[in-house]
Amino acid sequence: MDLSLSTRNVSGPGGDRTVVEVGGEIDVYTAPKLREQLVELVNDGSYHLVVDMEGVDFLDSTGLGVLVGGLKRVRAHEGSLRLVCNQERILKIFRITGLTKVFPIHTTVDEAVAATD
Amino acid sequence: MATVELRFSAQPEHVRTARLVAAAVARRAGVDEAVLDEVRLAVGEACSRAVGLHRSHGITAPVRVVLNEEEKAFSIEVGDGVTAAGDAAAGEARDGAAPGDSHESDAEGEDEMGLAVISGLVDDVEVTSGDDGGVIRMSWPTASAVALP
């Protein structure tokens, strides 16, 4: 299964948030598409991103690298990158790489959009 | 002879094929269903790393994946064509590159993260490098290896 991407803007208590809904497999082949999308959003001035990973079937270290790259970019503009994920097999990858300490991970998009800290 | 052997040209789009084949053979070999996700991820990481190495070293030979069903274990070997000597030469070339070449350092960071994921996932893993290139060997117990009560 290929990667699917869609974005939408949502207003939260802390201001506008851009939700990036990701579906399919994020691997060495598809990760560049996600990277392009995140770079494009930041270049267009969206610095508060919520990446919804509920539709992701597979994530590898290339995908993690792209998310870390996205975080680096939004932080340069004092922005934020929050993840939405409830899937144990995806969460496990964040855990074994220690990235649960780097990314705020939420259970719902609403919760991520409402977060202001 | 290997149970299944796969060779693919060093293109990112073929890594998914390697993952699917490895998971299918592991399932047949009796690897626990709960562990198949780990097999899929680990073989994907090893193949992504090999593809990256082949591309950065300009190696045209295919990446090699050997899947072996053994008596009490299932093993996977992912071989790249980068010899220890070739890697040293590429290291020198990299050292000579202009600072701030962020793309290259990104790729190296991902390579290390790939190995970190593999070592976090797989208990039995061995990384070797020789005259024929580097090999990542991983193995998992199969159902027949689990002691009966």
UniProtKB/TrEMBL annotation, chain A:
Matches recorded under InterPro entries: Anti-sigma_ant (IPR003658), STAS_dom (IPR002645), STAS_dom_sf (IPR036513)
Ranges in coiled-coil conformation: none
GO molecular function: anti-sigma factor antagonist activity
Keyword terms, alphabetized: Phosphoprotein
Record has Phosphoprotein as a keyword: yes
Domain (STAS): residue spans on this chain: 19-116
Pfam families: STAS
Top-level taxon: Bacteria
UniProt KW Phosphoprotein keyword: yes
Residues passing through the membrane, by range: none
Family: Belongs to the anti-sigma-factor antagonist family.
Record function comment: Positive regulator of sigma-B activity. Non-phosphorylated RsbV binds to RsbW, preventing its association with sigma-B. When phosphorylated, releases RsbW, which is then free to complex with and inactivate sigma-B.
Protein name: Anti-sigma factor antagonist
Annotated organism of origin: Streptomyces kanasensis
Taxonomic path: Bacteria, Bacillati, Actinomycetota, Actinomycetes, Kitasatosporales
Automatic annotation (TrEMBL), chain B:
Any one GO molecular-function label of the UniProt entry: protein serine/threonine kinase activity
Histidine kinase/HSP90-like ATPase domain location: 8-140
Pfam families the record matches: HATPase_c_2
Domain of life: Bacteria
Keywords: Kinase, Serine/threonine-protein kinase, Transferase
Region (Disordered): 85-111
Name used for this protein in its record: Anti-sigma regulatory factor
